[in-house]
Amino acid sequence: MTVNSITTGRIQSAIALASSKTGVDFDYLLGQAKLESGLNANAKAGTSSASGLYQFIEQSWLSVVKKHGAEHGMAWAANSIGQSSSGRLSVGDAGTKAAILALRNDPGAASLMAAEYASDNKASLESTLNRPASGTDLYMAHFMGLGGATKFLKTMQANPQASGAALFPAAARANHNVFYDSNNQPRTLSAIYDRFADKLGGAAAGASSTASATNYAAQALDMDGSTVITGANESADDALAWATTAMNKFTGRTTQTAVNVLRPTPDTARLAYMMLARLGG
Question: Contact 195/232 with Cβ under 8 angstroms?
């Protein structure tokens, strides 16, 4: 196994742990990370403060850490973040601020906070839009912030042919290829949304290929010669055979199914456990 594959395996294991702890679907989190950073925990945007596996900008990161950090062993960070009367978040000590922002490059912390952020956004969007939130809706909330995503989705519902660049000029300047096509023509809200849906679905499907997922399940079941027992007292061989069958079944899903993200099944939870066994989680 190459260094890159080992690194990818550790990242996927961190994502599986976040999925297990929060109930947010593994496929969504994995697809989002692949789309945001190519599964590169040290990725950094050139046009904004975005950094890490999930490309959190500074204010979004401080917000989710302040709200959920203590639940996941980061109370020191959550307690260090203050909020002004205008709602802006800050950290008084420069060194502490740097340490908190650096957590964006830690796969474990980033995956947990991305999962919590998705869960919060789901609840808010469903309340505002009066409909179930799709994976693309949640990705829009991550990409644009909850307020921006709400504005985008409500405007798109009323006028899908509206120009995204006209509605979000600052975001368009920072993300030209999202808001403009190859001919430099502004994309409509509907076109931007559909493009994200296609990319997110493709990323999730590609990242969760049968061969890859089965390989991680095999590694989870082979820990220095020990045997991991899962389910109804089955052996490692039986569990691995089940994993192979399950992944063959999951790989046949449609893109739309892959993007329905916050409804994990017992089977997907079990696969996540099998991968987590490698970490002793």
Answer: no
